[in-house]
Amino acid sequence: MNTHTLDKVLAAPFCKQTPPDFHALFSERARAIQSSAIREILKVTERPEVISFAGGLPSAATFPVDRMRAAFERVLSTNGRAALQYSTTEGYAPLREWVAAQVGTPQAPVSPDEVLMVSGSQQGLDLLAKVLVDPGDTVLVETPTYLGALQAFSLFAPNYVSIASDEDGLLPEALSDALRGAKFLYCLPNFQNPTGRLMSEERRYRLAERARELDLLILEDDPYGALSYDGETPPSIRSLAPERTVYMGSFSKVLAPGLRLGYVIAPTALRAKLVQAKQATDLHTATLSQMAVYDVIKDGFLDTHIPTIRKLYREQCAAMLAALAHYMPEGVRWNAPRGGMFLWAELPRGMDASAVLAKAVEQNVAFVPGAPFFAANPVIESLRLAFVTVPPPRIEQGVECSPRRKPGSSSLILLDSGLRRNDGFGILQRFLSGPSLRRVTRGAGSFRSAFSARYRGSRYGVVACSRRIAPGSTG
Ligand SMILES: Cc1ncc(COP(=O)(O)O)c(C=O)c1O
Fold first, then answer.
1. Which of 90, 118, 127, 392 has the most CB atoms within 10 Å of its CB?
2. How far, in Å, from the CA of 41 to the mean position of ligand 1?
3. In the chain, which segments carry CATH 3.40.640.10?
4. Domain made up of 62-302: CATH architecture
């Protein structure tokens, strides 16, 4: 553009420089997008003083930074031009071969031609919805399910049907004959996000059988399977019904999410369509990331690295369970996951986790209410606790003060350590909601030293006590 024209463009009257009305320009599809409840909460949790059980992030302490640095250097110095050039949509062949060998089983081998490398398994969810879902199609999801999948699928306006689940995962018998013709079932058998549940082996067999009866496609999303605390998981759904299962894996939780690297394993006819959709989306996944990851993992690094992640997460999970057992009032229930990064809790009936979150955030503690993880009929009392980014002492601190009372705004009920548990405390709990009531045991020191620092600013009364203590305030 020459100077004369540039001057004229810049000199346009201000009224003509107002931007277009973007809201009017948005497509129907874009208007339907809702911002993720988790991302909104995460904004608050960026403050360093906040103890956050909200985000689904892996622990940054597990990222093999030095190895990755060396791998990037090695790739750039030995194969730099190829690493920086455009490449195939399917992905880096040696990495696809590695994935095929890793996921395949003797009964259900995987061919590298079935593997598509994607920019995080989240992209796999998007591509699958793109090529499979028309508006109004029936999509089956667990109850609750991964919020990011609901977001990805919802762009294509499916009709969700929630499939009942319990502690052992989804219930195959809930897949009734009426669901024949559904586009697919999306399921997370290993340490599910958000609940941390592991689907039992028997249910997996029954699910594979039922899917065959209904001629149903299964999307099996498995970013957490490697994070079993005891190293064991039942067979994948893909290994039981390879002809009708699309398997998704990710390097986000075993290496680092910033690499944006995952994979989809799909029967070849479906993979061909996914490749076309990916071409239109981003041409291919970053070659440099793929080559560097392959360089890191090709000689068995994950065999030693993953056990260190498991150990760390097992300890953090134990710290979370211990803190919950110690501090949560009666009526709050939670599960004990055997792997992964999440735990699922339910507050007493009628207590809305979003309202509790608002109070918790004031006290610098955050978690994610469970409601957004339900495609329909949310359980408002539910919440997800992600424990792997918080060191154990902070886990205890976070659970203890969620929500911490405002100075002078709540009451504290005391109990002398000399009394048995079966006392007036339980009766009071039925009348008072959790956060305003705490059992405080005395230990060897005085009551004041036992609770005044911890519960600064609280008023207190006494339920039962072996000594006379007048109601007062910890100031
Ligand atoms: C169940 C599930 N699927 C997929 C993803 C996306 O992972 P990726 O980083 O591979 O895109 C996540 C991320 O937290 C997840 O929890």
1. 118
2. 18
3. 62-302
4. 3-Layer(aba) Sandwich (3.40)
